[in-house]
Amino acid sequence: xxxxxVMKGGxxxxxxxxxxxxxxxxxxxxxxxxxxxGHAAFNASSNVPWGQPISTYxxxxxxxxxxxxxxxxxxxxxxxxxxxxxxRCVFLAFIVLISGMAVLAMELGHTFRMIWAxxxxxxxESAMFWMGVLYLLDLIFLLWKFQRLEGKDWDSxxxxxxxxxxxxxxxxxxxxxxxxxxxxxxxxxxxxxxxxIYFYLTGITSGMAALVFYTYLAxxxxxxxxxxxxxxxxxxxxxxxxxxxxxxxxxxxxxxMVTGLYSNMPEVHLVWSDYILTSPVYHLSLWGGxxxxxxxxxxxxxxxxxxxxxxxxxxxxxxxxAERYYFVVGGQVIPLFKGTWAWDIVHxxxxxxxxxxxxxxxxxxxxxxxxxxxxxxxxxxxxxxxxPEPSGATAxxxx
Amino acid sequence: xxxxxMVIDLDKCTGCQACTTACGxxxxxxxxxxxxxxxxYSEGEYPSGQMKWLPRPCMQCEDPSCVHVCxxxxxxxxxxxxxxxxVDWNKCIGCKYxxxxxxxxxxxxxxxxxxxxxxxxxxxxxxxxxxxxxxxQGPDEDWRRGIGIQPKGxxxxxxxxxxxxxxxxxxxxxxxxxxxxxxxxxxxxxRTCPPKARYxxxxxxxxxxxxxxxxxxxxxxxxxxxxxxxxxYYLGAGAGVPAFQRRERS
Lengths: 399, 250
Ligand code: SF4
Ligand code: SF4
Fold this sequence. Notes:
The structure holds 2 protein chains of 2 kinds. By secondary structure, chain A is mainly α. Chain A has helices at 10-37, 52-75, 83-107, 111-121, 127-150, 157-182, 195-218, 228-235, 237-262, 266-276, 280-298, 306-330, 352-375. Chain A has a single domain (6-378), classed as Formate dehydrogenase/DMSO reductase fold (Up-down Bundle), CATH 1.20.1630. Chain A contains 13 helices and no strands. In chain B, the strands form 3 sheets. A 3-stranded mixed β-sheet of chain B has the order 6-1-7. Classes of the chains: A mainly alpha, B alpha+beta.
């Protein structure tokens, strides 16, 4: 079974080398620009302090949380049909988070200072303090859970407890991440108590896209090469869930858009009317990156096609990346109390150094992913589910 | 201990920016990174069009949102220093959350593209961790309070000229630049203001002139709906922040 995993062979090595090159180049370019120009290498400014590196971090952190939540379907809720993706989910959640953190580390003014300043400060009023605590816990639980799965411990009491703890950790970490934005009443575009729900939904959607893409990648985009239970999941329950997730994501975006456009408040209204909805990139990403895959996955015939599934995953990558970008930047484009010094919507486009961080993060995921596929059996499942089950039993929940 | 407050009389302010210049000189800020600035707003159209301006230091809020969000306590409100909000440059990690959370837009990363050309950071390259090292540097440096030349990768803001104010005699009600005994302790912007539109004193002292002015002339705080409760009050017509509106480029 594992032999059909192309990442274990030469193709994997080629991908590893290529992504390593991109990662090193991205890191090198960003590090060089930062050492030569300081943070002037970024286009983020005092008016838009959080630019693309932050939205990239957010994108990865939430994709990781999404993968963590998907892993909970088999590992916490014991939906057996999802066992074939459980281990890969946990692994991907771990490496995507690590990559996101690497991007964040390159963005901060003093990364290493954080290591002592946050724990010694104990500023429990700050959501960012909690972000540090909760994502660290999340990371530890993911690692622990993975180590259990690696030891083929799927069902012991401890494994279950770690699963539950990790699930709660993910919910708290990503919910708190939402509140970093959602609690900012001085930034009305973000100020929204339901933001954690929006982050959960969009997070699971991007996690699902990552899961589909990397699962196919492991088998050279050939579904026939996959183990039978995995094939069954990919033709059964999973694409339906993917479609449903995209549906609720779109619903949430629509509701935010309608409320925003309805509001008279310039900090919300103008962001939608004059910034987001006038951007061709946003439209492309919304229609092409979210609506199109949703429509494709709605079709009973299309959604089971491997090509369609991979295409949808890739479209959703782009769609949600843009969604995060417009969310983060959109909250800052209306100048805060600047008078005619900033007489229009603040203009921000990422610089080459900022793009290089995004590339670095993405390439890092590929590097770690190939290593993971090479050194672990990420398609591992508990012994009892490898035997074929009659179809229709795919979503069976065991107590 | 005093609770330092500032009162700015908009009926007297001419919008000349002398305060902004004085602040930049006093605190060695980079051009454009104005801890103190005057904001101009043009409102309405002929025949009722108007121009207004609002000098804007850090409001040293009583309930500062910048302090609540700072994950390291680098930003802190020092009640013992008159309620001034400081940034400890030894602790700041440059996450910029405080810049997101300050409703008054008065915090500066400065480690960014130059706001004004030529780029003084390349003309006077930074040494010893400084973001730039100009030939003249103010004598006071206190990184724990964000005083001195801003280092790389941290956030800076107005300190109410703590390095001056802190040397004032204990218990003084107002720091008035017309009083030769006190003039050296007055914040640079207040001392410079040609029409004497700015006042600085102790909001906890019932005898202070700043309290009298706020009471008698109906002082208001800007954007009070944020709940941050500034320690800076404004007098006179025009003490309100117009809503943002897009303007056509002419
Ligand atoms: S004006 Fe801004 S920076 Fe100053 S104390 Fe208030 S919230 Fe903090
Ligand atoms: S940038 Fe510095 S002062 Fe501001 S919140 Fe972050 S650590 Fe605190």
